Amino acid sequence: MDLIPAAAQYDDISDRMRQFAAARYMELITSLQEHVAEALSDPAGIHDTEPARVQANVAIVKLHASLIKELGLLYRVQDRPKEELEASMPLDEVQRLLDEAQARQDAAVAAAAAEAEARTLVAAQRRELLELETARARVLRGLGQLSG
Asked: How does pLDDT run across 98-117, given as a tens digit for each residue?
């Protein structure tokens, strides 16, 4: 593993180092698992075991436990999880906001309807005026032909 400056890539280096250390801890824990199982397998026969062997078994169990603890510390499993609180508000406030939004939408729809009605009225008046102008022109032509 090459040592490189850790200024800009700290998070990446930290993640890689955490993965590397975790892999080594897991290798040690796995290799000690058999010895720990053997040390804990026959607690009744401890009276027949020499003191040096008992101390060695206790040391292996302690090492195994400390490696598991170190692995947990590496990933901060003992830290309290960060609480991501969602913003909340009382139900009556939510209802008030919904009512206001509905009122704004109703007002916008009413304004759009009034504008459309006004446009339709103006268009109808223009159409009627054009029809009247056309009819007047026809009548004048007809009168011109009759008088001529």
From this structure: 999 999 999 999 999 999 99
Q: Specify the amino acid at residue 9.
A: Q
Give dist(CA 109, CA 102) in Å, integer: 10
Tell me the C-alpha to C-alpha distance, in Å, between residue 75 and each of 66, 79, 86, 113, 124.
14, 9, 25, 62, 76
Return the structure tokens found at 138.
């026809």
Q: Is the pTM of this model over 0.70?
A: no
In a domain, 120, yes or no: yes
Residues 35, 62 contacting (CB under 8 angstroms): no
27 occurs within a structural domain: yes
User: How many CA atoms lie less than 13 Å away from 143 in the CB half-sphere?
Assistant: 6
Residue-number span of the structural domain to which 117 is assigned? 106-148
Residues 68, 14 share a domain:
yes
